[in-house]
Specification:
It is built from 3 helices and no strands. The radius of gyration is 24 Å and the shape is rod-shaped. Helix content is about 95%, strand content about 0%. It has one domain. It is mainly α and about 120 residues long.
Length: about 120
């Protein structure tokens, strides 16, 4: 996807260079690159948060299994709070993925709209 957009931008830039000494396309590309960097940083941060919660859930599940296998009444009682934490964490993951979906959709539509606007200007 980026290759197609980059090659289109390069062709557009070459055409503008011949007719207009001010290079606005390169400025637009730089702005798009900055936006892309911000979007990827946001995605990266979100994926790190998801992975952190999933890692915590793995530990919780191991603890629940160990407590269950021990058959010690106190450990079984501890499982209640561990399972509650698991449920809260699952809700967090759902929320994070929902945010990721929304962020991706917004970034895609903005990028698509910017491409359309740049084509109209040319």
């Amino acid at each position: 996807m980026n290759t197609t957009l980059d090659s289109f931008s390069a062709a557009e830039s070459n055409m503008e260079d011949l007719s207009n000494p001010t290079i606005t396309t390169n400025q637009n590309t730089n702005k798009e690159d900055e936006v892309d960097d911000e979007v990827w940083a946001t995605f990266n941060n979100s994926f790190r948060q998801v992975q952190s919660v999933l890692d915590r859930n793995r530990v919780l599940i191991q603890q629940v299994n160990e407590n269950h296998q021990s058959r010690i009444p106190d450990n079984m009682v501890k499982n209640v709070s561990l399972i509650q934490e698991l449920n809260v964490n699952i809700s967090k993951v759902v929320g994070l993925y929902s945010d990721l979906n929304s962020n991706f959709s917004t970034a895609y539509h903005q990028r698509n709209q910017n491409s359309k606007n740049n084509c109209k200007k040319a």
